[in-house]
Amino acid sequence: MKFLFTLVFMVPLSFINMGFWLNQCVYMVLIFLFLVEMSLGSMYCNISYFLGVDLLSYIMILLSFWICSLMLMASEGIFKSNYFYKLYLFTLLVLLISLYSTFASMNLFVFYLFFEFSLIPTLILIVGWGYQPERIQAGVYLLFYTLVASLPMMVSIFYYYNLNGSLDFFFFFKSVEYFMFYLCMSMVFLVKMPMYFVHLWLPKAHVEAPVSGSMILAGVMLKLGGYGLMRLMQMMIPLAVKVNVVFIVIGLVGGFFVSLICLRQGDIKSLIAYSSVAHMGMVLGGIMTLNYWGLSGSLVMMVAHGLCSSGLFCLANISYERLGSRSFYLNKGLINIMPSMSLWWFLLSSSNMAAPPSLNLLGEIMLINSLISWSFFCMIFLSLISFFSAAYSLFLYAYSQHGKLFSSLYSFSMGSVREYLLLFLHWFPLNVLIMKGEFLVLWS
């Protein structure tokens, strides 16, 4: 509760003159306090009236704090151009409050409330600070995909309350064996992840969003889907054992198709956005196997993907700020003019294809274990997804860094210290957390 109050009382801080970097410092202090505060057991700790944290919530909240502070660091352009930056800070703060409340809530209805509310600041970020006029269409896609799936969930929450008598996660004892209930309850999370077939809002939203919008979408918003499924699958286990095969197949086959789509992209942000769909397809498969390897592997993969994908969007934005284009056909030969930035392209692209020592590797190994122990036939699509993730990551790196440079087109400045720090703060936890891998799997 004290962290929630800290965030609420930060609202005046958003509106003071020259408060941009002060907000950044406060976020960093909050991250430090949150790290120090929690003494984690397997059950909930730090319980207040409606909030509490277990390991799953803790890691997701920490990821939210981390990504939001890095979003500020990436958005210096908004501050320098004085483009409603106070309103931007306020929107970011409201988004962080809603994410914190979503992950920390111990009641299903409170979770649902803030889960839906987090959509509004994201929409304002995309429509208010996006780059192209198409951002309106992207916002409408984002809004209606989520709303159409989420209203049936509200009805199923009321139904479950009538059946169970409580909506606290701790008292989810009754299992429901109705397919319609299963579909209504999980569909909103499948859209948010996003599962193949309901993923079309994601590339649109990413491409039109400002860098901060892309970072929060890739870093945290996609994880809401996985988090919700992990929390709520326990109330549907008897039916899920029979039905989940459909979603595992869609996750894996869809992941393979999306990997092929990645190889045909002409837009850097679009490629990174589609690669998110492929990675989250594996996460969906891991959660749906309902075994320990799968849940732990999904958690690891969500953290890894949040850091890696967010870092790649930062890199795409660094190029975009200098070239004014995200097209692969203009982003060529960048190694000639920014060799130091080329190193970061390499490090984050290699992490994206699960090269050691990144956390993605640990996540993929655990998910492969989980899915193959569930069915040996998963081996086919898992190997294809792994191969093509390497293919499109190499394509992203080689096409943007190598090739003939049309020097007359470019007016380049070298990377600033802020940009290198931003990229380091994405890459460092991504590759160092693997040394503390047991911390991410000791939850039950």
Automatic annotation (TrEMBL):
Belongs to the complex I subunit 4 family. Pfam families: Oxidored_q5_N, Proton_antipo_M. This is NADH-ubiquinone oxidoreductase chain 4. Residues 105-387 form the NADH:quinone oxidoreductase/Mrp antiporter transmembrane domain. InterPro entries: NADH4_N, NADH_UbQ_OxRdtase, ND/Mrp_TM. One of its GO terms (molecular function) is ubiquinone binding. It is an enzyme of class 7 (translocase). Its EC number is 7.1.1.2. One of its GO terms (biological process) is electron transport coupled proton transport. The chain crosses the membrane at residues 7-35, 55-73, 85-103, 109-131, 138-159, 179-202, 214-233, 245-264, 271-293, 299-316, 328-347, 367-399, 420-443. Keywords: Electron transport, Membrane, Mitochondrion, NAD, Respiratory chain, Translocase, Transmembrane, Transmembrane helix, Transport, Ubiquinone. Residues 1-102 form the NADH:ubiquinone oxidoreductase chain 4 N-terminal domain. It catalyses: a ubiquinone + NADH + 5 H(+)(in) = a ubiquinol + NAD(+) + 4 H(+)(out). It is found in: Mitochondrion membrane. The keyword Signal does not apply. The gene is ND4. The keyword DNA-binding does not apply. It is a multi-pass membrane protein. One of its GO terms (cellular component) is mitochondrial membrane. Core subunit of the mitochondrial membrane respiratory chain NADH dehydrogenase (Complex I) which catalyzes electron transfer from NADH through the respiratory chain, using ubiquinone as an electron acceptor. Essential for the catalytic activity and assembly of complex I. Core subunit of the mitochondrial membrane respiratory chain NADH dehydrogenase (Complex I) that is believed to belong to the minimal assembly required for catalysis. Complex I functions in the transfer of electrons from NADH to the respiratory chain. The immediate electron acceptor for the enzyme is believed to be ubiquinone.
